[in-house]
Amino acid sequence: MTSLDRVRPIALQDVRDAQQRIAGTIIRTPLIRLDLGPGSPDVRLKLENLQPISAYKLRGAANAVAMLSEAERRRGVWTISAGNAGQGVAYAARAAGVPCTVVAIETAPVAKLDRMRALGAKLVLVSYARAWQALEDRSYPGVEGTFVHPFDDHNFIAGHATMGLEILEDAPDTAAIIMAIGGGGLVTGVGSAVKALKPQVKVWGAEPETAAPAARSFARGSAQEFPEWTATFVDGAGGKSVFPRMWERMQPVVDGIIVV
Hints:
By secondary structure, the protein is α/β, with parallel strands linked by helices. Helix content is 39%, strand content 16%. The protein has ten helices and nine strands. Helix 1 (12-21) packs across helix 7 (154-170) and helix 7 (154-170) crosses helix 8. The longest helix has 17 residues, at 154-170. The termini are far apart.
């Protein structure tokens, strides 16, 4: 495994720079009110399903690929994904004119696998357990190129953080933000941006009860594994563990975890 840059906070300037960098690639998605009937709380939905890949991961991928050096791009890029990060990296790589390989989880929806191929990615299909190990190792036998980690990557997280800027621009009176956790890149990014501007806003992650290592980590005060992980239809959220590097990033900017 290659040596890693030290973990550092996602600075507000990193997020503002990412916002400008990816403006021509992503869509500034609407924040719409969810009508739950009279007397219901004001709940709003950030429609990231309107992105070109139907997922927020394009934000992080576009920023991460844009930040690569020419030498790194010439090597081609690769990532590991259940579908959304793979689509994002493939989309950004195609726009940059560089080859892309995705080590993809074999149980990912066929539509996502087909979309990655349509975006020009070469797929290497593996089990969930093998993919998670590759995420920890940051390598996979026979796959070469510049690795773009789908969550443990400063530039990837900064791209996701742009969503936090948009939420506060559209709803300055926001009291709390809830978002799903897989590896923790989204909640870390949005939490970093929001806490920098309005530290009183609560930031909560959400995990399925079948895959809730972040909830266990917050309960115990350190990065935890979740050995009883069980596969469900929730293929894009919940992991087998919280990586120590992600815990270091997440803990200061996330108020807690909701398990559903």
